[in-house]
Protein backbone atom coordinates (compact mmCIF):
# COMPACT_ATOMS: atom_id res chain seq x y z
CA UNK A 1 0.00 0.00 0.00
CA UNK A 2 1.54 3.29 -1.10
CA UNK A 3 0.81 6.47 0.84
CA UNK A 4 1.48 9.89 -0.68
CA UNK A 5 3.91 11.75 1.58
CA UNK A 6 2.01 15.03 1.16
CA UNK A 7 -1.16 13.35 2.38
CA UNK A 8 0.72 11.73 5.24
CA UNK A 9 2.19 15.08 6.30
CA UNK A 10 -1.32 16.55 6.33
CA UNK A 11 -2.55 13.67 8.47
CA UNK A 12 0.37 14.18 10.86
CA UNK A 13 -0.35 17.90 11.19
CA UNK A 14 -4.04 17.36 11.92
CA UNK A 15 -3.42 14.73 14.57
CA UNK A 16 -0.36 16.31 16.14
CA UNK A 17 -2.17 19.61 16.56
CA UNK A 18 -4.53 17.96 19.02
CA UNK A 19 -2.29 15.39 20.74
CA UNK A 20 0.23 15.74 23.54
CA UNK A 21 3.54 13.85 23.44
CA UNK A 22 2.07 10.92 25.38
CA UNK A 23 -1.20 9.90 26.94
CA UNK A 24 -0.43 10.60 30.59
CA UNK A 25 -3.94 9.98 31.92
CA UNK A 26 -4.13 6.30 32.80
CA UNK A 27 -7.62 4.98 33.38
CA UNK A 28 -9.25 1.66 34.12
CA UNK A 29 -10.28 -0.28 31.04
CA UNK A 30 -13.97 0.50 30.29
CA UNK A 31 -16.06 -2.15 32.04
CA UNK A 32 -17.63 -3.58 28.88
CA UNK A 33 -14.26 -3.94 27.11
CA UNK A 34 -12.58 -5.35 30.22
CA UNK A 35 -15.37 -7.88 30.69
CA UNK A 36 -15.29 -9.09 27.08
CA UNK A 37 -11.49 -9.39 27.04
CA UNK A 38 -11.57 -11.25 30.34
CA UNK A 39 -14.09 -13.76 28.97
CA UNK A 40 -11.93 -14.36 25.90
CA UNK A 41 -8.81 -14.73 28.06
CA UNK A 42 -10.44 -17.35 30.25
CA UNK A 43 -11.20 -19.44 27.18
CA UNK A 44 -7.61 -19.55 25.94
CA UNK A 45 -4.48 -21.14 27.36
CA UNK A 46 -2.35 -18.01 27.11
CA UNK A 47 -1.48 -14.79 28.94
CA UNK A 48 -2.95 -11.73 27.25
CA UNK A 49 -1.99 -8.07 27.70
CA UNK A 50 -3.69 -5.09 26.08
CA UNK A 51 -3.13 -1.34 26.04
CA UNK A 52 -4.78 1.31 23.93
CA UNK A 53 -4.64 5.08 23.91
CA UNK A 54 -7.45 7.33 22.71
CA UNK A 55 -8.21 11.00 23.36
CA UNK A 56 -5.07 11.31 25.54
CA UNK A 57 -6.23 8.53 27.82
CA UNK A 58 -4.43 5.23 28.28
CA UNK A 59 -6.40 2.06 29.02
CA UNK A 60 -4.73 -1.21 29.99
CA UNK A 61 -5.55 -4.84 30.67
CA UNK A 62 -3.03 -7.12 32.41
CA UNK A 63 -0.31 -4.57 31.72
CA UNK A 64 2.09 -5.36 34.58
CA UNK A 65 3.33 -8.63 33.05
CA UNK A 66 6.61 -8.71 31.11
CA UNK A 67 5.75 -9.78 27.55
CA UNK A 68 8.49 -10.93 25.14
CA UNK A 69 8.64 -8.36 22.35
CA UNK A 70 9.93 -10.63 19.60
CA UNK A 71 10.10 -8.59 16.36
CA UNK A 72 8.18 -5.66 17.84
CA UNK A 73 11.59 -4.56 19.19
CA UNK A 74 12.49 -3.66 15.61
CA UNK A 75 10.58 -0.43 16.30
CA UNK A 76 13.15 0.44 18.96
CA UNK A 77 15.98 -0.56 16.63
CA UNK A 78 14.69 1.58 13.75
CA UNK A 79 14.40 4.64 16.00
CA UNK A 80 18.00 4.21 17.19
CA UNK A 81 19.32 3.68 13.64
CA UNK A 82 17.44 6.69 12.26
CA UNK A 83 18.64 8.87 15.13
CA UNK A 84 22.25 7.89 14.32
CA UNK A 85 21.62 8.71 10.66
CA UNK A 86 20.39 12.15 11.70
CA UNK A 87 23.45 12.69 13.89
CA UNK A 88 25.80 11.70 11.04
CA UNK A 89 23.86 13.41 8.26
CA UNK A 90 23.30 10.11 6.48
CA UNK A 91 20.54 10.18 3.84
CA UNK A 92 17.93 7.47 3.35
CA UNK A 93 19.00 6.93 -0.24
CA UNK A 94 22.68 6.46 0.62
CA UNK A 95 24.06 3.01 -0.19
CA UNK A 96 25.90 0.67 2.14
CA UNK A 97 27.83 -2.50 1.41
CA UNK A 98 26.65 -5.69 3.11
CA UNK A 99 29.17 -8.49 3.56
CA UNK A 100 28.19 -12.16 3.65
CA UNK A 101 29.52 -12.38 7.22
CA UNK A 102 26.64 -10.09 8.29
CA UNK A 103 23.98 -12.44 6.93
CA UNK A 104 22.85 -15.34 9.10
CA UNK A 105 21.65 -18.30 7.03
CA UNK A 106 19.36 -20.05 9.49
CA UNK A 107 16.92 -17.23 10.20
CA UNK A 108 13.89 -15.51 8.71
CA UNK A 109 15.29 -13.21 6.02
CA UNK A 110 13.53 -12.16 2.80
CA UNK A 111 16.70 -10.11 2.23
CA UNK A 112 18.77 -13.30 1.99
CA UNK A 113 16.19 -14.78 -0.38
CA UNK A 114 16.78 -11.80 -2.68
CA UNK A 115 20.57 -11.80 -2.28
CA UNK A 116 21.51 -15.47 -1.70
CA UNK A 117 25.24 -14.77 -1.95
CA UNK A 118 24.96 -12.55 1.13
CA UNK A 119 27.08 -9.79 -0.43
CA UNK A 120 25.27 -6.83 -1.95
CA UNK A 121 24.64 -3.08 -1.90
CA UNK A 122 21.44 -1.64 -0.42
CA UNK A 123 20.11 1.77 0.58
CA UNK A 124 19.40 2.62 4.20
CA UNK A 125 15.75 3.13 3.25
CA UNK A 126 15.46 -0.37 1.79
CA UNK A 127 17.30 -1.91 4.73
CA UNK A 128 14.87 -0.25 7.14
CA UNK A 129 11.94 -1.34 5.00
CA UNK A 130 13.12 -4.96 5.16
CA UNK A 131 13.46 -4.74 8.96
CA UNK A 132 10.11 -3.07 9.63
CA UNK A 133 7.66 -3.92 6.84
CA UNK A 134 9.00 -7.43 6.17
CA UNK A 135 10.41 -8.13 9.68
CA UNK A 136 13.73 -9.33 8.28
CA UNK A 137 16.01 -10.60 11.06
CA UNK A 138 19.27 -9.99 9.21
CA UNK A 139 18.27 -6.43 8.36
CA UNK A 140 17.43 -5.87 12.03
CA UNK A 141 20.82 -7.06 13.29
CA UNK A 142 22.67 -5.02 10.66
CA UNK A 143 20.81 -1.96 11.91
CA UNK A 144 21.61 -2.87 15.53
CA UNK A 145 25.31 -2.98 14.64
CA UNK A 146 25.02 0.35 12.83
CA UNK A 147 23.34 1.93 15.86
CA UNK A 148 26.24 0.81 18.09
CA UNK A 149 24.93 -2.47 19.48
CA UNK A 150 21.86 -3.48 21.44
CA UNK A 151 23.07 -1.51 24.47
CA UNK A 152 23.11 1.65 22.35
CA UNK A 153 19.62 0.88 21.07
CA UNK A 154 18.42 0.56 24.68
CA UNK A 155 20.20 3.78 25.70
CA UNK A 156 18.63 5.66 22.80
CA UNK A 157 15.12 4.61 23.78
CA UNK A 158 15.83 5.28 27.46
CA UNK A 159 16.94 8.79 26.58
CA UNK A 160 13.72 9.24 24.62
CA UNK A 161 11.78 8.59 27.83
CA UNK A 162 10.52 5.11 26.98
CA UNK A 163 9.85 3.13 30.17
CA UNK A 164 8.51 -0.31 31.11
CA UNK A 165 10.74 -2.40 28.84
CA UNK A 166 14.21 -3.92 28.47
CA UNK A 167 16.44 -4.87 25.55
CA UNK A 168 19.52 -7.08 25.82
CA UNK A 169 19.28 -9.39 22.82
CA UNK A 170 19.74 -9.33 19.05
CA UNK A 171 17.88 -11.56 16.61
CA UNK A 172 20.99 -13.75 16.37
CA UNK A 173 21.35 -14.16 20.15
CA UNK A 174 17.67 -15.03 20.53
CA UNK A 175 17.93 -17.57 17.74
CA UNK A 176 21.02 -19.12 19.33
CA UNK A 177 19.39 -19.41 22.76
CA UNK A 178 15.58 -19.49 22.62
CA UNK A 179 14.99 -18.62 26.32
CA UNK A 180 16.76 -15.31 25.60
CA UNK A 181 13.56 -14.27 23.80
CA UNK A 182 12.17 -13.43 27.27
CA UNK A 183 14.98 -10.91 27.86
CA UNK A 184 13.61 -8.41 25.32
CA UNK A 185 10.34 -7.56 27.02
CA UNK A 186 7.85 -4.75 27.47
CA UNK A 187 4.52 -3.92 29.03
CA UNK A 188 1.89 -3.21 26.35
CA UNK A 189 1.63 0.39 27.58
CA UNK A 190 5.36 0.86 26.92
CA UNK A 191 4.91 0.14 23.22
CA UNK A 192 1.87 2.44 23.10
CA UNK A 193 4.20 5.09 24.51
CA UNK A 194 6.81 4.40 21.83
CA UNK A 195 4.29 4.42 18.97
CA UNK A 196 2.83 7.70 20.14
CA UNK A 197 6.24 9.35 20.42
CA UNK A 198 7.14 8.12 16.94
CA UNK A 199 3.88 9.40 15.46
CA UNK A 200 4.06 12.76 17.24
CA UNK A 201 7.53 13.42 15.81
CA UNK A 202 9.10 13.49 19.27
CA UNK A 203 11.89 11.05 18.34
CA UNK A 204 12.80 11.72 14.71
CA UNK A 205 12.93 14.60 12.26
CA UNK A 206 10.03 15.20 9.90
CA UNK A 207 11.44 13.22 6.99
CA UNK A 208 12.25 10.19 9.10
CA UNK A 209 8.95 10.35 10.98
CA UNK A 210 7.07 10.27 7.67
CA UNK A 211 9.31 7.50 6.36
CA UNK A 212 8.80 5.33 9.42
CA UNK A 213 5.03 5.82 9.55
CA UNK A 214 4.71 5.13 5.84
CA UNK A 215 6.80 1.98 6.22
CA UNK A 216 4.63 0.73 9.08
CA UNK A 217 1.52 1.39 6.99
CA UNK A 218 3.10 -0.74 4.26
CA UNK A 219 3.86 -3.61 6.66
CA UNK A 220 3.10 -6.93 4.99
CA UNK A 221 3.26 -9.23 8.02
CA UNK A 222 0.44 -10.17 10.39
CA UNK A 223 -2.59 -9.11 8.36
CA UNK A 224 -4.60 -11.74 10.26
CA UNK A 225 -4.08 -9.92 13.57
CA UNK A 226 -5.11 -6.31 14.35
CA UNK A 227 -5.90 -5.55 10.71
CA UNK A 228 -8.27 -8.52 10.55
CA UNK A 229 -10.25 -7.05 13.44
CA UNK A 230 -10.87 -3.73 11.65
CA UNK A 231 -13.37 -2.89 8.90
CA UNK A 232 -12.10 -2.73 5.34
CA UNK A 233 -10.68 0.64 4.35
CA UNK A 234 -9.32 1.62 7.78
CA UNK A 235 -5.77 3.00 7.50
CA UNK A 236 -3.34 1.66 10.07
CA UNK A 237 0.36 1.06 10.56
CA UNK A 238 1.73 -1.73 12.71
CA UNK A 239 4.61 -3.96 13.75
CA UNK A 240 4.11 -7.61 14.51
CA UNK A 241 6.24 -10.13 16.37
CA UNK A 242 5.99 -13.88 16.85
CA UNK A 243 8.19 -16.66 18.14
CA UNK A 244 6.50 -19.39 16.19
CA UNK A 245 6.07 -22.73 17.95
CA UNK A 246 8.75 -24.04 20.31
CA UNK A 247 7.87 -27.53 21.59
CA UNK A 248 4.18 -26.71 21.16
CA UNK A 249 4.46 -23.36 22.97
CA UNK A 250 4.26 -19.91 21.40
CA UNK A 251 6.51 -17.70 23.52
CA UNK A 252 4.84 -14.59 22.11
CA UNK A 253 2.48 -13.48 19.37
CA UNK A 254 2.16 -9.70 19.19
CA UNK A 255 0.82 -6.77 17.22
CA UNK A 256 1.28 -3.04 17.87
CA UNK A 257 -0.57 -0.47 15.78
CA UNK A 258 -1.70 3.08 15.25
CA UNK A 259 -5.18 3.29 13.72
CA UNK A 260 -6.86 6.24 12.00
CA UNK A 261 -10.51 6.05 13.06
CA UNK A 262 -13.31 7.18 10.71
CA UNK A 263 -14.29 10.06 13.02
CA UNK A 264 -10.82 11.64 12.76
CA UNK A 265 -9.35 10.32 16.00
CA UNK A 266 -6.15 8.33 16.33
CA UNK A 267 -6.02 5.13 18.38
CA UNK A 268 -2.85 3.34 19.46
CA UNK A 269 -3.43 -0.35 20.15
CA UNK A 270 -1.01 -3.00 21.43
CA UNK A 271 -2.04 -6.62 22.02
CA UNK A 272 0.48 -9.13 23.36
CA UNK A 273 -0.08 -12.88 23.73
CA UNK A 274 2.43 -14.73 25.89
CA UNK A 275 3.11 -18.44 26.56
CA UNK A 276 0.26 -19.65 24.38
CA UNK A 277 -0.65 -23.29 23.84
CA UNK A 278 -3.10 -22.28 21.12
CA UNK A 279 -2.40 -22.66 17.41
CA UNK A 280 -0.91 -19.80 15.41
CA UNK A 281 -4.28 -19.16 13.76
CA UNK A 282 -6.01 -19.14 17.15
CA UNK A 283 -3.49 -16.60 18.49
CA UNK A 284 -4.06 -14.37 15.47
CA UNK A 285 -7.83 -14.72 15.78
CA UNK A 286 -7.58 -13.84 19.47
CA UNK A 287 -5.80 -10.58 18.60
CA UNK A 288 -8.33 -9.83 15.86
CA UNK A 289 -11.29 -10.46 18.20
CA UNK A 290 -9.90 -8.17 20.90
CA UNK A 291 -9.27 -5.52 18.24
CA UNK A 292 -12.89 -5.81 17.09
CA UNK A 293 -14.17 -5.45 20.65
CA UNK A 294 -12.16 -2.27 21.19
CA UNK A 295 -12.93 -0.81 17.76
CA UNK A 296 -16.67 -1.40 18.12
CA UNK A 297 -16.66 0.13 21.61
CA UNK A 298 -14.70 3.27 20.73
CA UNK A 299 -16.65 3.87 17.50
CA UNK A 300 -19.95 2.87 19.14
CA UNK A 301 -20.66 0.17 16.59
CA UNK A 302 -23.45 -2.17 17.65
How would you explain this protein's 3D organization?
With 302 residues, this protein is of the alpha+beta class. It has helices at 5-16, 31-42, 74-88, 110-114, 124-132, 137-147, 150-159, 171-176, 188-199, 206-217, 280-298; strands spanning 25-28, 47-54, 57-61, 67-68, 95-98, 120-123, 165-166, 185-186, 236-242, 245-246, 249-260, 266-276. The strands form three sheets. Strands 1, 2, 3, 9, 10, 11 and 12 form a seven-stranded mixed β-sheet that branches. A three-stranded antiparallel β-sheet has the order 4-8-7. A hairpin with a 2-residue loop joins β2 (47-54) and β3. The radius of gyration is 18 Å and the shape is globular.
Summarize the structure.
By secondary structure, this protein is of the alpha+beta class. 41% of the residues lie in helices and 21% in strands. It has helices at 5-16, 31-42, 74-88, 110-114, 124-132, 137-147, 150-159, 171-176, 188-199, 206-217, 280-298; strands spanning 25-28, 47-54, 57-61, 67-68, 95-98, 120-123, 165-166, 185-186, 236-242, 245-246, 249-260, 266-276.
Amino acid sequence: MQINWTILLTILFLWNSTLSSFATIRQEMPMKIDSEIRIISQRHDATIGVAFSLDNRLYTYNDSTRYPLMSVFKLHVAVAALQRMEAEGTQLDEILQIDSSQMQRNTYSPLLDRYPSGSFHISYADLLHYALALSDNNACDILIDYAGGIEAVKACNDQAGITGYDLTETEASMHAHIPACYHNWAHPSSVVQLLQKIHDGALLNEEHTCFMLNTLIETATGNNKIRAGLPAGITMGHKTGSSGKVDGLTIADNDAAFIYLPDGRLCYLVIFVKDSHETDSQNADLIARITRIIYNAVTQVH
